[in-house]
Amino acid sequence: MIVGLDNTSFEVNFAQFVNRRFCVAVGSGTSALYLALRALNVSRHCEVIVPAISWISTATAVLACGATPVYVDVLEDGNINPQAIKAAIGPRTAAVVGVNYFGQLAPWAEILEVCQSFSVPVIEDAAQSAGALLEGQRSGSFGDISTFSFNPMKVLAATGEAGAVLCDDEAIANRIRSLRYLGSSDMIESREPDLNHKVDLLQAKILDFQLELLPQKVDRRQQIAQRYRSMLETTPIDASARPLTSSSFFDFPIRTNHSHILVEYLSRQGIDARKRPSLTLTDQPALNPIGKREFPVAQAIARDTVCLPMFSSLRDEEIEAVGQHVVEFFKNVTK
Ligand SMILES: Cc1ncc(COP(=O)(O)O)c(C=O)c1O
Question: Which fold has domain 5-209?
């Protein structure tokens, strides 16, 4: 054991919050994904099924293990399509990574049904979804292994880099603890070489404090989302599909084929809306050198999505101003 690193108060409290047996805090969400894949023995000659749209890490973690990412298209909300997973599973599939994209929980019942029927393990990339709930079950409790990022942009945020891997299997948790620091669980002998993925203990302390504030931060984001949804009812935007609690609202994405001019218009009003994501993983040559390039839903999301400002510290008058400007924009654009 590395003195002081195992079973920190944050690890114990976060495992309890998510309702998992084990939490291993690590240096970043990217390290968390990589270590989860390593613990599933993902290596050269393996394929890992991942969504065509996500943050870059979802793909680079697979590539860093020497494995091949097999991209599949997503549903209209940006989450991996369970039927596309089914079609992509083959003899070399070593794992599937599902991402709770924009903070919205993926269709876990269907994903797990497909993967269990092929005995393929599932990693839940919950980097964006801390605090979200689906029928009483917390984000991070769905995959065989789940991973989080706590970088300062996240809903549960440290002041620097941090992440975590959670699971219920003691052998996997112990392996990740060992891989977290040079493949050595006693700081003497390295049993399987790896790099330094340790969490900064100061960040773990900060996260322990931030965890207490998480439910109220997520509540506030859900209130903001509710207000945006009702203000957007008079526009062509359909932003109200899923139950509020099933998202942490890391982002509040809306889709329009006027995305570029909407961002420019809002920027002129002093509103920091973002054209995000702007590229699918499959349209990045470094991440998809020779693979299939047609992923119509993911590509439409990358082309049409604008994320409205979403912070728990947004004031009511700021939320109203954003909503009114978006409504105004669509009045003008549809004239
Ligand atoms: C979906 C997703 N996966 C993984 C990561 C990687 O996390 P980190 O930046 O902590 O390495 C992020 C963070 O940006 C993310 O959004």
Answer: Aspartate Aminotransferase; domain 2 (3.40.640)
Q: Which distant-in-sequence residues (6+ apart) come within 8 Å of 268 by Cβ?
A: none
Taking domain 214-333, whether its CATH number is 3.40.50.720 is answered by no
pTM: 0.97
As a whole number, mean pLDDT of residues 83-97 equals: 98
> What is the Å distance from ligand 1's center to 176 Cα?
18
Model confidence pLDDT, tens digit, residues 159-212: 999 999 999 999 999 999 999 999 998 888 999 999 999 999 999 999 999 999
Q: Which residues line ligand 1 (CB under 6 A)?
A: 28-30, 33, 54-55, 57-58, 99, 125, 127-128, 149, 151, 161, 163
Asked whether residue 315 carries a pLDDT value surpassing 60, the answer given is yes
Pocket test for ligand 1, best of 28, 50, 57, 80 (most atoms within 8 A of CB): 57
Q: Where in the chain is the domain with CATH 3.40.640.10?
A: 5-209
Residue type, 84: A
40-47 long-range Cβ contacts below 8 angstroms, 24+ apart? 40/94, 40/95, 40/121, 40/123, 40/145, 40/172, 41/94, 42/67, 42/94, 42/95, 43/67, 45/92, 46/92, 46/93, 46/94, 46/95, 47/90, 47/92, 47/93, 47/94
Tens of pLDDT along 151-172?
A: 999 999 999 999 999 999 999 9
The mean pLDDT of 263-283, rounded to a whole number, is 95
